[in-house]
């Protein structure tokens, strides 16, 4: 029975020991890895969309999305302390709920990591084009900065950054982490500068009306609808758990990295949102001439924004570089431009962590036999899974080169929410069936925390646009076809290759 294919904890740890990754990351590097994954497109770009959906109420949207991530992070921390190997939610599900569900989780996480990496690469391309125009007066041809969907041929800047990040990850994890630390420093400095300049001139009257679209309005508007989209601003913190096998003292450092990075980013988000809302621009949604709300990304909103901007100041909800735009309106023109430059320099760190997480996911699935084992080959010099890293990088590059960004954030959210839900279920199941397994970190009030995680994930998923909701089952169906065509027959658990007869039993092991 495929639902009975549960991989034992001893087998998981023994498999990792036979073909292991080099442990080189500490708590600080993991925290920076998490901050690098979290702070990016969400806060630099999606602030405008949140303003259009929820107005000043987007502050509550940040809190709701952050709260769901916080309870999910507690569940991740317990499982990572029990199973400190690569694979994240996939491995945890394999150890508790079985192979089939583990495969669906791993496959769903492709929507988080690879799709998000492609989306950020395209977003970075826009910043690159803007920087070339603003600083050097160079206007790049449309054919080289957009895919066929936008009248071009290929998004060359997105291709270049995707390949560069892939090459860096092939060279080595420690080297990648050092570069990531520099990029995280740039992002944190930029956001700190924004907070210092924006908060002193905050206008409290701009916070009224606080929730012009209510809690749940039409077309995914309202505070809850904005939370479902702004959830993308937190996506990536779970990439810390995928690095467990490359972490020194993972039982201590993985929980610190998860919770530390989430706490740092939540504080920044709340302060940045306050500065943006209180600025002279305000954060009220853009309405049409008849006073009706317009959906983000719609042609109607784009036309209305063009009309308003031509007659005066561009609203926050219309800006593609929200934070830089706010500072320019406050009077800090040059610093606003530097914030745009900081986003341009720092967004590659998000691509790095997304591709990193995806390669480690495929690595462990290959190591379990669900994907061809050749993919999990470790490079003799660089000690990285170079083959799967190259393949993942090529996939991300092709998507970034030719496909539209459009709904990618919501699609990535759908895959992430499914994985978070499965992690919460795994924590509950393992507490019940194997209470004696050593847990260096234990979720406090586990039943409450896990149930809140499940309810939060389901609620945010239902608040996503319907097309994003439909992508998950369609993508899952494709994954099931692949599983039954290859993984079902080649699985190490099915073939009895995961048996560890001579290994000492972990207390309370499966």
Mean pLDDT: 79
Please give the radius of gyration in angstroms: 22 Å
Give me the strand/helix succession.
Answer: HHHHHHHHHHHHHHHHHH
Q: What's the CATH topology name? A: Amino acid/polyamine transporter I
Terminus-to-terminus distance: 17 Å
Secondary-structure-based class equals: mainly alpha
Description:
This is APA family basic amino acid/polyamine antiporter. It comes from Sphingomonas prati. By secondary structure, the chain is an all-alpha fold. It has helices spanning 9-18, 27-38, 41-54, 58-82, 88-96, 99-136, 156-171, 173-198, 222-230, 239-242, 250-278, 299-311, 322-330, 333-367, 386-402, 408-433, 446-463, 466-490. The protein is built from 18 helices and no strands. Helix 8 (173-198) runs parallel beside helix 11 (250-278). The longest helix has 38 residues, at 99-136. The chain starts with 8 loop residues before the first helix and ends in a 20-residue tail after the last helix.
